[in-house]
Write a structure and sequence with these properties.
InterPro entries: Metallo-B-lactamas, RibonucZ/Hydroxyglut_hydro, RNase_Z/BN. By secondary structure, this protein is α/β, with parallel strands linked by helices. The chain has a single domain (4-277), classed as 4-Layer Sandwich (Metallo-beta-lactamase, Chain A), CATH 3.60.15. It contains ten helices and 14 strands. It has helices at 42-48, 66-69, 72-81, 95-105, 107-115, 179-185, 199-204, 210-220, 226-236, 252-260, and strands at residues 4-10, 24-29, 32-36, 58-60, 88-91, 127-130, 136-138, 145-150, 158-164, 167-171, 190-194, 240-244, 266-269, 275-277. A hairpin with a 6-residue loop joins strand 7 (136-138) and strand 8 (145-150). Helix 6 (179-185) packs across helix 9 (226-236) and helix 9 packs across helix 10. It is globular, with a radius of gyration of 18 Å. Bound molecules: zinc ion (2 copies).
Length: 280
């Protein structure tokens, strides 16, 4: 039997929020955790869930927007200082440059720590797999079959599907509704879906502020509403929809209601520290 869990570490957005940490979730397959995105506060969220950051040897970035990577420096250096000696990262093109810039930024700090005799493994030799623009199957030694597909956002963004035995979890990344995601998520046990354009945001469209209206219009091309999240879940015929990427003051109950009007399966407006058990 495989012990399989999905833990929501951060269900927030770029707007700082005490109730919701930056976007991040972890899939744990027996004793192997795979981190997906690394938003603000990820290290602390992991520790609160009693997952040692040093035990995470695999990290997938859906995209490199600041809200999905704000926690990376802490994860990289903090995990290493706690004893991580191996790390593989999968992400879009630009992931290697991003990682190298972090090393550069902390060069003096790292040199000092290396001079104390801490081995460089796990920090200076990180394996980075940059995804081809068309996505596809990713060749890794992770205990899951990983398939990716490009989705619709304002920078290169990928949805990830993890097949573990007979179970499947799909993470949408930030995206507007798109067929490639429906195809990727087909039959998944769980779809973790961006539902950033929540009702309180929609309400703000009625504001007289022209600039705000303009921003919301742009967001409509880059994120989903709860109803669109529900429609994607229905089309993909998934078992459970977990919505995430919420702005502050989201009405989670209303978001669930809107998604449930479209999708008959189980609907959850995700919260930080939600754990879903999918033992096979
Ligand atoms: Zn984004
Ligand atoms: Zn985001």
């Amino acid at each position: 039997m495989t012990n399989l869990t999905l833990t929501m570490l951060g269900t927030g957005s770029p707007k700082p929020n005490l109730e919701r940490s930056g976007p991040a979730q972890v899939i744990t397959i027996d004793n192997t955790p795979i981190l997906i995105d690394c938003g603000e506060g990820t290290v602390r969220q992991l520790m609160k869930m009693e997952i040692n950051p040093a035990d995470i040897n695999y990290l997938c970035f859906t995209h490199l927007h600041s809200d999905h990577v704000f926690g990376y420096e802490h994860f990289l250096l903090g995990g290493w200082s706690l004893g991580r000696r191996k790390l593989t990262i999968i992400g879009p093109k630009g992931t290697r440059r991003f990682h190298e810039r972090v090393l550069e930024m902390f060069e003096e700090d790292i040199d000092y720590r290396l001079s104390l005799g801490i081995p460089g493994q796990g920090l200076m030799d990180v394996t980075i797999i940059e995804l081809e623009d068309e996505g596809g199957l990713v060749d890794t030694e992770m205990p899951a079959k990983i398939t990716t597909t490009p989705v619709i956002h304002n920078v290169k963004t990928f949805a990830f599907r993890f097949d573990i035995g007979a179970k499947a979890i799909t993470i949408s990344g930030d995206t507007a509704p798109v067929d490639s995601l429906v195809k990727l998520a087909k039959g998944s046990d769980i779809l973790v879906q961006d539902a950033a354009i929540n009702t309180s945001s929609i309400n703000s469209q009625t504001s007289d502020d022209g600039n705000l209206k303009n921003i919301w219009k742009r967001l409509e091309n880059e994120h989903c509403t709860p109803a669109q999240a529900g429609a994607l879940a229905k089309e993909a015929d998934v078992k459970k929809l977990v919505m995430t990427h919420f702005l502050p003051n989201v009405d989670a109950e209303l978001a669930s209601k809107e998604a449930s009007e479209v999708f008959d399966g189980e609907v959850i407006a995700g919260s930080d520290f939600d754990v879903f058990i999918l033992n096979d």
